[in-house]
Amino acid sequence: xxxxxxxxxxxxxxxxxxxxxxxxxxxxxxxxxxxxxxxxxxxxxxxxxxxxxxxxxxxxxxxxxxxxxxxxxxxxxxxxxxxxxxxxxxxxxxxxxxxxxxxxxxxxxxxxxxxxxxxxxxxxxxxxxxxxxxxxxxxxxxxxxxxxxxxxxxxxxxxxxxxxxxxxxxxxxxxxxxxxxxxxxxxxxxxxxxxxxxxxxxxxxxxxxxxxxxxxxxxxxxxxxxxxxxxxxxxxxxxxxxxxxxxxxxxxxxxxxxxxxxxxxxxxxxxxxxxxxxxxxxxxxxxxxxxxxxxxxxxxxxxxxxxxxxxxxxxxxxxxxxxxxxxxxxxxxxxxxxxxxxxxxx
Length: 346
Prior knowledge:
By secondary structure, the chain is of the alpha+beta class.
């Protein structure tokens, strides 16, 4: 018996009859499977009364068995640090976010300019997630540094998804552009904080053109060998089986998808600049907002129910009406994890 995450790089001799001739594909667990996995690992810890693991399972689409085990372990550590007798849903949700999007880094000291830039960047992502159709539900938006990013906008699908419609992918491209567009609208300048957003959007747009037949100009043709990758040391390059002229057309189509997404993001945020300002200022005051609070701002123009127990630090002032025109660029590092759009990398 053997296991691998990369069957595409195995020597074909291993798969001949009489050797490893039976292959079993183990996919990521569905919601029922996630609940059962959580129950197995929860036997080793004590849960508080009323904790429903089915709720946690619905909120962890795309998590592997190992990640779910880690969620239980992290939640147990959080409960122990807080002196609790059992793990509550709050610890499980915090552990879920940590496993998927990285640990909060509250000790990282940011200048006020960087905080303002991050707040408007994340507000741009969050507002587009709320305003544009065909987007995933907004989970939370924060300017607390987490993982490689100074801020994050996180979403969680309502159910397990195995396919994406074209209009959903196009909406996702526009949401990816929201941070960069917000910087440009508010500050009249941009930072390198959108690196991860641009990288992810470009990868999706290229797959739309090359693999998924979602370009009218290029047609329903797969460009490049999807199954057979060329390995050069540790680098992976896609095998190309088309001409330079076709490659140029592909680049043009990818660029068009990204440019159209940018223009939609810009027109939407420009029209709703007042809401963008309110979200950013609320982030500067409370640091983290959930999806329901962003919805309040969009519907009522103000935050009606602030985060429970949240209050500005003593002596903290609300940001000025007009943010400064100059911003500080952060160093360029690894982009954010899937399922989140990060602000300026840290």
